[in-house]
Design brief:
The structure is a single chain. The protein is mostly helical. The chain has helices at about 1-30, 35-40, 60-80, 90-110. It contains four helices and no strands.
């Protein structure tokens, strides 16, 4: 019994040591030549002129969430379609329920106007 815990302890030590050793080696081997440009905060794009705070439309976020929901649906429907011949009536009813829930979510998003691009 103790040998099984010892094996788990050794694996835990290895799992902790590998990233630490990798980070330590990267820190030791990196070139260290600081200058003001390297130490400045990096933002993508050009320097902004004027007010930098812009309000982001929540509609883009909702559109992305609807996309992710139907992307996840494809991930679940594909294995079901592959194994359709081996599934009984239970598998069909579960998939009909799953698609019905997603269609309900689509109808909700549609009614709220989340799919209208402005």
């Amino acid at each position: 019994m103790l040998s099984q815990y010892a094996l788990i302890a050794v694996l835990a030590i290895i799992a902790f040591a590998l990233p630490v050793v990798g980070l330590l080696l990267a820190w030791l081997l990196r070139p260290h030549k600081p200058n003001p440009m390297k130490n400045s905060t990096y933002e993508c794009g050009m320097e902004t002129i004027g007010e930098t705070w812009v309000q982001f439309k929540a509609q883009y976020y909702l559109f992305a969430l609807v996309f992710v929901a139907f992307d996840v649906e494809a991930v679940f429907v594909f294995p079901w379609a592959v194994a359709y011949g081996k599934l009984a009536l239970y598998g069909l009813t579960e998939m009909i329920l799953f698609v019905a829930i997603l269609l309900g979510g689509l109808m909700y998003a549609w009614r709220k106007g989340a799919l209208e691009w402005q």
